[in-house]
Design a protein that fits this description.
Elements (H helix, E strand, L loop, with lengths): L1 H23 L6 H27 L4 H6 L1 H31 L2 H9 L2 H11 L7 H19 L10 H27 L4 H22 L13 H4 L4 H25 L2 H21 L8 H42 L1
């Protein structure tokens, strides 16, 4: 089992590290066209996978939804929100990669969602953060401020606008995580069935956006379905669909169940470093400047503190609940 967990975490780290370079290797393809190609390929792969999953785990989870149409409509609406949030996260991340350096885009988009989630926990849910979480948020925000302030670094490829797109992508990523949590609380849908549902909800939006932004053109081959008809950038599209959409999601589930969400979160924190190294090795990223390196170190340290502090806080809350329940039981 330990070897399985180690393999799962390695797959997650490797796929997250290669993701920015894969998006950049698609060259002049527009950011929203890259997104729709990924969704189309993912749906093609996920439909048969979800059917095989249903044969293995059964369809008992559908019975409550069939009996209560309102609940089914609510879950469908939540899947649509999940899909829209993912469209914002991936589309803005791809746009950020097109307008700023790989290091800045990855730091802003990939590493910052936990900070937004911490803010949501305080402002909306009214939960008091632990000291570690507060310190972590401050360190992460300070780190991202240092990195973003040096907009001329990384060989002149960084830009403030691109960094802004990355931060907006992180906000959508946080919304995506919250919407997944909402759906999970309403129904226990199997992993790939749920992913197929929100991907299909996202598909119409991903088809419309490239048309609205005039990214579709006859020459070069930038059509809505050219990844399939002409085989345009098929290695990258296959990686985005199979590597990120299937393998990474399955390995995330294994890692979270067997090693805990803390370990998975820490691996996620390290992915911007891996992305920078992979991008530099493949020639997709220039050597980052000193402010970017310092800021990235601050962001990584801050997010580690946020994740560790959140894990400690949740464990203490669980212990307090168990203690209260035991006291109540003895009083009865």
């Amino acid at each position: 089992m330990q070897l399985l967990v180690a393999f799962a975490t390695l797959v997650v780290f490797a796929t997250e590290s290669y993701l920015p370079s894969a998006v950049r290797q698609m060259g002049s393809v527009g950011p929203f066209l890259k997104m729709t190609w990924r969704v189309q390929a993912s749906v093609v792969l996920l439909i048969p996978i979800s059917l095989l999953e249903s044969r293995r785990v059964g369809t008992q989870w559908l019975a409550p939804l069939m009996a209560h149409p309102r609940d089914a409509a609510s879950i469908l609406g939540s899947c649509a929100i999940t899909g829209a949030a993912w469209v914002g996260a991936f589309g803005l991340f791809s746009l950020s990669l097109s307008t700023t350096s790989l290091a800045h885009a990855t730091l802003c988009a990939v590493a910052m969602p936990p900070v937004y989630l911490a803010a949501w926990t305080v402002l909306v849910r009214g939960v008091r953060l632990s000291l570690l979480e507060v310190c972590g948020v401050c360190v992460a925000v300070g780190g991202i401020a240092i990195a973003v302030s040096d907009s001329g670094s990384d060989g002149g490829s960084a830009s403030l606008a691109g960094d802004g797109f990355g931060l907006c992508s992180a906000a959508c990523g946080a919304a995506f995580a919250l919407s997944i949590e909402s759906v999970r609380a309403k129904a226990s849908m199997p992993l790939f069935a749920f992913q197929t549902a929100w991907m299909m909800c996202a598909l119409p939006l991903t088809l419309i956006l490239p048309l609205l932004t005039s990214e579709v053109s006859p020459y070069p081959a930038h059509g809505l379905f050219d990844w399939l008809l002409l085989g345009s950038h098929w290695p990258q599209v296959l990686f985005l669909a199979l590597g990120m959409g299937v393998a990474s999601q399955a390995c995330m589930t294994v890692a979270a169940q067997e090693a805990g969400s803390l370990v998975l979160g820490l691996i996620w924190c390290l992915s911007p470093i891996g992305a920078g190294v992979v991008g530099w090795m493949l020639g997709e990223a220039k050597t980052p400047g000193a402010p970017t390196i310092a800021g990235g170190a601050g962001v990584t340290l801050g997010l580690a503190l946020v994740l560790i502090g959140g894990d400690v806080r949740q464990r203490r809350a669980a212990v307090e609940i168990d203690t209260w329940a035991e006291e109540e039981y003895h009083q009865i």
